[in-house]
Design a protein that fits this description.
This protein is an alpha+beta fold and 79 residues long. It has three helices and three strands. Strands 1-2-3 form a three-stranded mixed β-sheet.
C-alpha cells in the first residue's frame, strides 16, 4: 500500500482519491509517521438483517388492546 506525505496528499488529493475509489487505498503520513488510511466506500459496513429474531418469542394476539379497559377507566373514552 502506498504511503504519501501530507504535502503530496494536499497537492494531489483529487488524483489520490480517484485511485482510492478505484481500489488503490493509500496512507497519509506526517514526518514519516502514518496518520490515516484512505480506502473506498464499497458498501455499508453494517448489515441490517430483517427477521433475524423470527420465532424467538411470541406476541399475544391481544397485544394492541392489553390494558385498554384500565386505560379507558382512568382517562375515559374519547368519542
Amino acid at each position: 500500500m502506498r504511503t504519501v506525505n501530507m504535502r503530496e496528499a494536499k497537492t494531489q488529493l483529487s488524483r489520490l482519491v480517484a485511485k482510492a475509489a478505484d481500489g488503490e487505498p493509500f496512507i497519509i503520513a506526517r514526518a514519516g509517521k502514518p496518520l490515516v488510511k484512505v480506502v473506498p466506500l464499497d458498501a455499508p459496513t453494517t448489515v441490517r438483517r430483517l427477521g433475524f429474531m423470527e420465532g424467538a418469542f411470541n406476541v399475544p394476539g391481544d397485544f394492541d388492546t392489553k390494558g385498554q379497559r384500565n386505560t379507558e377507566r382512568l382517562f375515559g373514552t374519547q368519542d
